[in-house]
Amino acid sequence: MEPIPVLTPYKMGQFDLAHRVVMAPLTRQRSYGNVPQPHAAVYYGQRATAGGLLITEATGVSDTAQGYTDTPGIWTAEHVEAWKPIVAAVHAKGALFFCQIWHVGRVSTFELQPGGAAPLSSTEKGVGPQMSFDGRLEEFSPPRRLTVEEIPAIIDDFRKAARNAIDVLTAWRSMVQTGTSLSSFSRIVRMTAPTSMVAVLRTGVRVGIRLSPFTDYMDCHDSDPHSLALYMSTKLNDHGILYIHMIEPRMAIVDGRRVVPKRLLPYREAFKGSFIANGGYDREEGGKVVTEGYTDLVAFGRLFLANPDLPKRFEVGAELNKYDRMTFYTSDPVVGYTDYPFLE
């Protein structure tokens, strides 16, 4: 029997992975008051497999980093202690756990900011109204543009969050989603990910980064996304970045079947580390891009959310559970979170 491509082993830097199925970061809004909860240990533990790679939901680096209620933080001692049993549950299964740290920038409201202040951003332009999954119209508050003098403090928040993550995680990664022009975006990312984390790199811990050059989410897009992505993929080679996790442009539909547009290949070829592709893949398409050398690893989001035993289902060709969008962002600690059924 031919091996299933996404279930073949892969060596990612110093880490030996048993398969190439990665759990993508998924915001779930079940960390009450920004504190990770015990039910998260169940959730991540369910999806952990020996030699598998899981990436945590986006985790705030400071009290100004919050854009949604009940998303986890890692900027206080309380947060660090709350993460420890979650990491233990993942490690008990023999899995590798990366922590995705973030700052939401302008995607926030006065109510979620300390002292009711304006959200911080690289621009004074606000985010337009956005439709939520349950049909509500979400409004965001006008942001305040950071001064040049304030930028080092934000970078320091990432540094401190990374140090906290090291206290509880085997490895960690940095994610930056704000920026306007190619030069300003790349400068901030290069300052935040490699330079401010150099002390961490010296300890042998590795850093990955997630890039979404083709997104138009939250009124955020770049005038030349190809040049941006190629520039970043090349420049990050200078900093020993372990992997790039990149979001695929939207799938095309051909003859009733989803087809990968395959626009990430130039960046995969430019970057010397491991490459993770993400964006609507299934078992067949994921296997195809691995076989063709288009990517090293494939991240799955909604499929992993609804199928805690996703690698096993891929192995036996089992039918997948269907996900329920209405439970993506609720506060329920069980429904739509840890109650999706296993094969056995």
TrEMBL record:
Keywords: Fatty acid biosynthesis, Fatty acid metabolism, Flavoprotein, FMN, Lipid biosynthesis, Lipid metabolism, NADP, Oxidoreductase, Oxylipin biosynthesis. One of its GO terms (biological process) is fatty acid biosynthetic process. Gene3D superfamilies: Aldolase class I (3.20.20.70). GO terms for molecular function: FMN binding; oxidoreductase activity. Residues 7-167, 206-320 form the NADH:flavin oxidoreductase/NADH oxidase N-terminal domain. Its cofactor is FMN. InterPro entries: Aldolase_TIM, OxRdtase_FMN_N, Oye-like. Belongs to the NADH:flavin oxidoreductase/NADH oxidase family. This is NADH:flavin oxidoreductase/NADH oxidase N-terminal domain-containing protein.
